[in-house]
Amino acid sequence: MHTVLLAISLLVVSVIGQRVEPFDKNITISNGNDVDLECVISGVADNQFLSWTRITETDGGSVTTDVIAFDEQLAYDGSDPDVPNSPARYSLIKTSTRYTLEIDDAKMEDEGKFECSISKTDQKQAVWLTVKTVPEIDPITGNFFAHENKTYELKCIASGSPKPSIVWSRPGDMLPSGEYLSHGSILELVNMSSSHRGVYQCAASNTEGSVKRTVEITMDHKPEVTVVKEVVLAWPGETASLTCLFEANPSASLTQWIKVDSGRTIK
Ligand SMILES: *[C@@H]1O[C@H](CO)[C@@H](O)[C@H](O)[C@H]1NC(C)=O
Ligand SMILES: *[C@@H]1O[C@H](CO)[C@@H](O)[C@H](O)[C@H]1NC(C)=O
Ligand SMILES: *[C@@H]1O[C@H](CO)[C@@H](O)[C@H](O)[C@H]1NC(C)=O
Fold it and tell me: Could you read off the pLDDT of 85-120 as tens digits, one per residue?
């Protein structure tokens, strides 16, 4: 009876050959969750070993391959600077049919392509991991002092998954372009004028949420004076008050009221 069973399983192995098959080819989870990348294995001989590799494509287009784990030992012991991920969060579980890479507390940097393969064969299968993350705004232009007629670029860079969309606006006002919104990381302010000073807001959003940051632009401008009431009526003997508002940067001080018909300086 045992002989027969053994014969059958040998037959199956020789028909199928060495195989790895990902349990799930595209996995999407939220930031902070744990995830298992599972590889279903069959027909692996004693002299072959299994590996999980991480395939990273840089912005420049070059591809790096990092072996994360092979067979029952983790290749990555925390000392390998080539593996960009935190080793403590990665672990490996192997059974006779599954070869599982467990990732704890997944982060956006874990996103990408992983490959399960059998050495000395062409057997390999890819798994794509997507870690959905609320956007985070990275270095953004800080508050600054602008000069008249100069051109400035306001930058807002955001990370997040899916890739966040970025929108510039000016709370309670139109952008100098005459639009209410400007899409994209960079907002260009051409020929700065005092009407362009104030608060600008960058918002980064994706399906997970949205975040906002502001930039305040201050600049020199000539003092602007406004009289609250141009005509003030008063009966003889009554107290009348004349109010003048003024705004300037650097700050100015109200120096004098002049009575025009007499040319007399009151104060
Ligand atoms: C999984 O996602 C990757 C990257 O988004 C894509 O290229 C690939 O075709 C997808 N594979 C499957 C099986 O859906
Ligand atoms: C800015 O440009 C205006 C118009 O060309 C000019 O009148 C003004 O003097 C310029 N200001 C500075 C600080 O260059
Ligand atoms: C900016 O100022 C320059 C010089 O005053 C002028 O030639 C140019 O047309 C202005 N550009 C815009 C977009 O207002």
Answer: 445 788 777 777 888 888 889 998 889 899 888 877
Read off the tokens for 151: 């051109």
> Do residues 239 and 228 make contact, with C-beta atoms less than 8 angstroms apart?
no
pLDDT in tens, 156-170: 999 999 999 999 999
Helix (H, G, I), strand (E, B) or coil at 58: coil
- Integer CA distances (angstroms), 90 to 30, 66, 93, 102, in order: 17, 13, 10, 6
Residue 209: pLDDT band by 50, 70, 90 thresholds? very high
Domain at 14-132: CATH architecture:
Sandwich (2.60)
Ligand nearest to the CA of 189: 3
Q: Where are the CATH 2.60.40.10 domain residues in the chain?
A: 14-132, 141-219
pLDDT of residue 71: 53
Is the C-beta atom of 194 inside 6 A of ligand 2? Answer: no
Q: How far is the CA of 77 from the centre of ligand 1 (A)?
A: 30
- Among 48, 231, 230, 37, smallest CA distance to 122 is for 48
Tokens representing residue 60 in the block:
């420049």
Residues 129, 112 contacting (CB under 8 angstroms): yes
Which of 145, 149, 150, 195 to probe ligand 2 with, by most ligand atoms within 8 A of CB? 149
Q: What is the CATH number of domain 141-219?
A: 2.60.40.10
Q: Is 163 in the pocket of ligand 1 (CB under 6 A)?
A: no
